[in-house]
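Protein: Polyhydroxyalkanoate synthesis repressor PhaR
Species: Hoeflea poritis
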Amino acid sequence: MAKSDGQIVIKKYANRRLYNTGTSTYVTLDDLAVMVKNGDDFVVLDAKSGDDITHSVLTQIIFEQESKTGNTLLPVSFLRQLISYYGDQMQMLLPSYLEHSMTAFTAQQDQMREQITKAFGETPMARNMQMPMQMMEEQVRRNTEMFQQAMQMFSPFAATDSKPAEDEKPKTESKDLKELKDQLRALQDKLDSMDG
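Structure follows.
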């Protein structure tokens, strides 16, 4: 079976070798990283059990990329926060938030590229030019603020000295999310009253 629903099937054998059933060749983690960058959709299966091990292989690729380049994408503070959410009650919300954040980040990147093309035209210089620092810094600032707001939402028991201003609160909030926040506040009040 070379493909399943348009996905390329990669089999991982006990000797840790990876076999691309679509091209009938052995591949490396670097090859898989290139496939990801090219937008190729693949699934990694354990050759013996048939289990889907795509998640662990992608995590291994990230680990190797972080080790090789010396140019880490994941700051230590982010890794610490991420680790702290394992086993936490809010763990189930974080993956969808991170996925949404990366989608938004990618969309912002595409908008910036489009703006640069409009400003400078389709010249070789514009295609190879790195984004102006101001634009990148502004995007990083916005994404950092969005991430910090989400982390505050995921950590309702963290002590805060001041409440956010009304204009900083999201304009629309789903009913379920509001109910969950209300329940968490009520639980925190109960815990506070037990301490006192």
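Remarks: The first strand starts at residue 3 and ends at 4.
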